[in-house]
Amino acid sequence: MPPSQLKRLKASLREQGIVGPQKSKKQKKQNAQNGDGKEKRVHRTDALNAIRDQFNPFEYRWSKGPKFEATTIKGSNATKGSVIGRSHVGKTRAEDNVLTSSSPRDGLFCEIKFSY
Questions:
Q1: Is the pTM of this model over 0.85?
Q2: Of 13, 69, 99, 102, which residue is the least packed, with the fewest Cβ within 10 Å?
């Protein structure tokens, strides 16, 4: 049986060097004086983004491919299992458009919609 998702997450965080043994005050002080914090912060954000993409497969929309390969055009670029895009990007754009609309009627609709 494969390890649980939590165990895989902890292992990948440990491999990337994000989580590890605690540092002493002396080590923290030396790192602060060297100025390595900015580089480590950039590395940490890149590693976290890679781990996030790896662990959240539902964030992407996948193509289904042709239903019957014999009857479809051979030159189609959407093969089965290829990534089409991210589903949450369109949704957030639409929400931003509603929230930043300029007409008063849209603003009223927005207030009514989000007043729970």
A1: no
A2: 102
Which tokens go with 111? 């207030």
Tokens 């895009």 identify what position? 85
Q: Which residues pair with 43 in a beta bridge?
A: none
Model confidence over 50-100: pLDDT tens digits?
898 888 777 777 677 667 766 666 655 556 656 666 666 667 777 777 766
Place of tokens 């440990």: 14
d(CA 114, CA 94): 14
CA distance 82 to 115: 39
Vertex 23 angle, CA 21 and 26, to 5°: 160
Residue type for position 14:
R
Q: Whose structure tokens read 């990534």?
A: 83
Q: How many domains does the chain have?
A: 2
Containing domain of residue 111, as a range? 79-116
Within-domain flag for 106: yes
